[in-house]
Amino acid sequence: MGSLLALYLLGPDQTVSRTSPQGPADASSLYRLILVATHLAGDAVAVVVCRRYSARTDDRDLVWSLRLFAAGSVLAIAFWCGYLIHLYVRVDGMLPWLSLIMSLHGFFRAASLLVPVATASARSLAALRTTWLLWPLWRDLVAAAPHVALAQPQRTRVHEVLRPRSSYALQAHRQTIETYDALLHLQQYVRPDAFDRAHRQAGLRGERLAKAALACALDQARRAKLAGAPPSAPSALPGVDRGSPATLLAIARIWPPPPGALPAAAAPGGPGPQPRRAGRGTSRRK
Fold this sequence. Notes:
mainly alpha
């Protein structure tokens, strides 16, 4: 700013460039030289600062913002160097490329500002997906163990998504914890042979077989609790000891399990469950 003020005080002949867009620069282009030098210095400092501080933080949003801003500064340096060359050496076809470089520079600068918004949106979508997928399992287990829930489920999961009581991230986190707490509580109602029987009768293969067996055993425990069966020693279900969200979501994708895969335990005073012969009463799905 001081140099531009000095040029102004020197007189209009010094501040007005006689350089034409088609011709090379002459000695009166001091204003353009100051402009180019200022941009080159500022962009060079931006590259150094962004590179240095991006290596000092563990915040991924900040790291990518600084890196994208530095990339935009590198493109700005390339633009001003090309423009400086164009002032003194006429190069045919350079201006369209310089325009492209400046457009990319603006894109990278805008992207650096949008990184936090993009990551926040991605987290919200992931939480929304978790809330949507986990809702049927969470609703049924909370109905059997209502003491684990801070708030009872709404009528449908559409209401849960459109009228959330909290942010999507907190809602997904709460549903995951409450589903796992209900699962631990219902392990007192899992029969010792429930998982093995469901494993034989699920009619699936691979990883889905284990998750379907878990879903069937868990549904049997839920129905036993709702029927008033007395609790017993907890029978741990394999694969859910740490409450992995991926495991709960895998069970939720199969929920509700096939009807009649396992009979519920009898209520107090009622007849016990009748044993099922192998090879009969088994429904197979392809």
